């Protein structure tokens, strides 16, 4: 044989050897967000191919809720993995749900060996979050529905559990309305970062977005507007239930908000009887054409639509018994279709409600939420009222209000506008968004700590969690939602999940670059922050 042919054969053999060689870099180098509590490396890898089976152990029905998403993810890559029965077999992925294990709520233990993956947890959410970690241990091509023969997972162990029980995002569907499909897409994207609450801001001055059967004009009139005077929209109760169920399948709980007693013009333009006599700022007022909507009864006290973004001009009539009947009906209907523990009553920026009226209003609304078996959430101003220990104040503006809530025995949800508001512009060149609180670049969104957001510092036990709100005065479609949310939401998710000692911007800024490649495959319109080297080496 000629020397050149021998060389060719050798080099082909060599190339094919490398083509088959899996990536076996240490597990601790994979760009997992949020960063896990502990990662222990081991040598080798687990191969996922058509010979692998998923086996459920312990509380099998609950474990299946976490295993099914992994099965579907692998099927996306052309790997149809069946369920098997024998946990002692080789080449198995075991989901073990056992409440008596020593693993904290929502936590998991993930052990990857050469012939076995073992995921353990004390609840189904822990197992589901382990699946989100596994997703990030798989190559980025998994996000592109590319069919493959096999996939590799690095050997090693992860012990992980969240720092905070509540890790949330808020979507304002009132200033601009977003479809059920858009909300589902948001749920898909945030669930990858172990977010477990989605707060929906369902009513504001510009629009009412949820069907309330006992007050039908809220949707017949109040929903048909948004910022700029567009057509708006609303969710029927069936559609809302569909969102709730979809979120639950990804271990996300919906927190519905009806903002009261301010931010209520969409109720006041539906029912004048709720209006103590407020008017809409003239330059943003748009008449309601009741005739066009087939409503023949006149209503002189009903307000026009508000098409602008000014806040603080509206209030419910806090003296009227009809108002409390309204609040009772709305919360009753909402509680009936909301399996989660919280109903959010807003309470922010009620600038035209006198404090002596505001306080009893909040206390009555809180009592109604309690009567229907739910816990109250409200923006930090609600701390002026007497709060129940089960109520949660959402700290967005004033540390003093947050402290007032804590002194009453309530917990706070930490959402400082200057750090977590996703509608704040990244910098002065950002085309959408506002900047009344701050410009928030990615490192600003990352480099802070919930315990240190007040000059007096909060105690750990006073903090329920962290939420990143996306207000939609300037955000009009899904592309814009994605642009403002990514990459900042993963930064907030890491603050909420990962212990402070494990967090560093240096590490996060490298890991997030790999997520940019995944978002490209998923078609996510993310902001390419100049603080990140997006072309950096990724897995
Ligand atoms: C708020 O940003 N008004 C809670």
Description:
With 539 residues, the protein is of the alpha/beta class. The chain folds into 2 domains: 20-160, 2-Layer Sandwich (Chitobiase, domain 2); 166-522, TIM Barrel (Alpha-Beta Barrel). The protein contains 15 helices and 17 strands. Strands 8-9-10-13-14-15-16-17 form an 8-stranded parallel beta barrel, surrounded by 7 helices. Helix 4 (180-191) links the parallel strand 8 (166-172) and strand 9. The radius of gyration is 26 Å and the shape is elongated. The structure holds acetamide. Acetamide (ACM) is lined by residues 348-349, 379, 396.
Mean pLDDT level: 95
**Secondary-structure content class:** alpha/beta
Tally the helices. 15
Task: Could you tell me the CATH topology label of the largest domain.
Answer: TIM Barrel
Rounded to the nearest angstrom, the distance between the terminal CA atoms is 41 Å
Strand order of the largest sheet: 8-9-10-13-14-15-16-17
CATH first level of the largest domain: Alpha Beta
The CATH architecture classification of the largest domain is: Alpha-Beta Barrel
Counted beta strands: 17
Tell the overall outline: elongated
Task: Summarize the main sheet.
Answer: 8 strands, parallel, barrel
> Which ranges are low-confidence, i.e. pLDDT below 50, for 5 or more consecutive residues?
7-19
Signal peptide: 1-21
Domain Glycoside hydrolase family 20 catalytic: 164-499
Catalytic activity: Hydrolysis of terminal non-reducing N-acetyl-D-hexosamine residues in N-acetyl-beta-D-hexosaminides
Family: Belongs to the glycosyl hydrolase 20 family.
